């Protein structure tokens, strides 16, 4: 919503000014390299198992959209969690289960952006994430959660 726009703009300007350690600047190019780790959660029937091609297609869209801002996203790793107890809404960030899940699977949040795909229980929500100033930089609660459905086809 528009009410978040000033905070998002401020956070983006702070990022550009500081170039967080997770965004390593490529020598000579001035482009910040942002390393992503996808955590693909699915149930026993493999519902939610987002394909690698779909994830890579989404990263291509991000790279195109943020090229002019000097940002480039790299897929560092794709981790898969078949039959995950966290798949069906278990990674909502304000619940004990969501905090526990991120504590168990997050990878070095100061160096990587952790992106979790799961079945989100709230209607009309495609995903959500944390702002850079919500937690200390190395806190495992950082990251983005994305609904397992509705990704562009890759």
How would you characterize this protein structure?
This protein is of the alpha/beta class. It has three helices and six strands, in the order αββαβαβββ. Strands 1, 2, 3, 4, 5 and 6 form a six-stranded mixed β-sheet that branches. The protein is globular. The mean pLDDT is 83.
Outline: globular
> What percent strand?
15-25%
Q: Please, what is the average pLDDT?
A: 83
The tally of beta strands, per DSSP, is 6
Compressed to H and E, one letter per element, the order equals HEEHEHEEE
State the helix count: 3
Uncertain parts: none
Q: What distance lies between the first and last C-alpha atoms, to the nearest angstrom?
A: 28 Å
| Sheet with most strands | 6 strands, mixed
Proportion in helices = 25-40%
Cα gyration radius (Å): 15 Å
Class of secondary structure makeup: alpha/beta
Strand and helix layout:
Blueprint: H1 5-18, E1 23-25, E2 32-41, H2 52-66, E3 71-81, H3 96-105, E4 113-118, E5 127-129, E6 144-147
Parallel strand pairs: 2-3, 2-4, 4-6
Antiparallel strand pairs: 1-2, 5-6
């Amino acid at each position: 919503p528009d009410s978040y726009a000033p905070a998002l703009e401020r956070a983006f300007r702070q990022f550009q000014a500081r170039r967080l350690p997770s965004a390593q600047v490529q020598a000579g190019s001035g482009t910040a390299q942002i390393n992503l780790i996808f955590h693909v959660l699915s149930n026993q029937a493999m519902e939610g198992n987002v394909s690698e091609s779909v994830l890579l297609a989404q990263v291509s869209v991000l790279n195109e959209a943020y090229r002019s801002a000097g940002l480039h996203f790299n897929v560092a790793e794709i981790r898969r969690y078949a039959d995950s107890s966290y798949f069906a809404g278990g990674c909502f960030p304000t619940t004990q289960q969501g905090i526990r899940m991120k504590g168990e699977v997050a990878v070095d949040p100061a160096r990587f952006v952790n992106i979790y795909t799961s079945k989100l229980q709230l209607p009309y929500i495609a995903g959500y994430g944390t702002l850079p100033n919500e937690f200390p930089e190395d806190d495992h609660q950082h990251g983005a959660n994305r609904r397992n459905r509705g990704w562009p086809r890759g």
